[in-house]
Design a protein that fits this description.
Elements: H1 2-15, E1 44-54, E2 59-69, E3 74-80, E4 88-93, E5 96-102, H2 111-123, E6 130-135, E7 141-146, E8 152-157, E9 163-168, E10 174-184, E11 187-195, E12 201-212
Antiparallel strand pairs: 1-2, 1-12, 2-3, 3-4, 4-5, 6-7, 7-8, 8-9, 9-10, 10-11, 11-12
Length: 215
């Protein structure tokens, strides 16, 4: 009976994780004057070579083409192999998702929505109000947003200048971790996204081309 109680207790504690504490660091002259902002500043078309690593060691390589507008939050995206045959194409405007093409293995019920949400998390500043701004105990500069569905988004800047994004569930579990590397010409050359789901996956995105919209 004691063993069963211990197992239940451990399960409960692991399910109810707490968010990292954000505080204003000392000394006072070290203050967070602005939030880290690794996101797009204008409408841009981006082409990435993407390595997809799935649970169980399954790997694949695709080309991703994304047009994203941070002002309207409209997105169009396509996935294709090296042969350039479009396997998936979708557009989101006015929060309405329109899947134009979805071939296996990109035709599952939740793939399109999860993909668009990942794109927004990578390229768009979070919606809503900033709840906290300061520093984590480990030294990263941080801003925290609360989303409308009880999730939390932390945008971080490390001491070495790298940017990171962490999406937490309502229970405090990390659902998405994004790391931005090698800023050049206003665009990050390498982006890593780790998704913690029932079927976890990791994306390694290497920038091939970025074309800002002409004014």
């Amino acid at each position: 009976m004691k063993l069963a109680s211990l197992i239940i207790c451990v399960f409960f504690l692991s399910a109810c994780q707490t968010l990292p504490v954000i505080t204003q660091a000392t000394p006072p002259e070290k203050t967070a004057s602005a939030c880290p902002n690794p996101f797009l500043k204008q409408k841009t078309t981006l082409i990435h070579a993407i390595e997809v690593h799935m649970a169980g060691g399954i790997k694949s390589a695709v080309i991703g083409v994304t047009e994203a507008d941070p002002t309207t939050r409209e997105i169009s995206c396509a996935i294709m192999p090296a042969e350039r045959m479009v396997l998936f194409e979708a557009i989101e405007t006015n929060r309405t998702l329109d899947v134009r093409r979805a071939m296996s293995p990109f035709d599952s019920a939740h793939f399109a929505r999860n993909m668009l949400e990942d794109i927004k998390l990578i390229f768009f500043e979070p919606l809503g109000n900033i709840e906290k701004m300061g520093f984590l105990p480990s030294g990263e500069e941080a801003c925290r947003w609360r989303t409308g569905n009880s999730d939390t988004i932390d945008v971080l800047k490390t001491g070495s200048g790298l940017s990171e994004v962490k999406l937490y569930s309502g229970s405090g579990k990390v659902k998405r971790y994004i790391k931005f590397n090698d800023l050049a010409g206003g665009f990050y050359q390498n982006i890593e996204l780790r998704a913690q789901e029932i079927a976890s996956y990791t994306l390694f995105m290497n920038l091939v081309e970025a074309r800002p919209a002409e004014n």
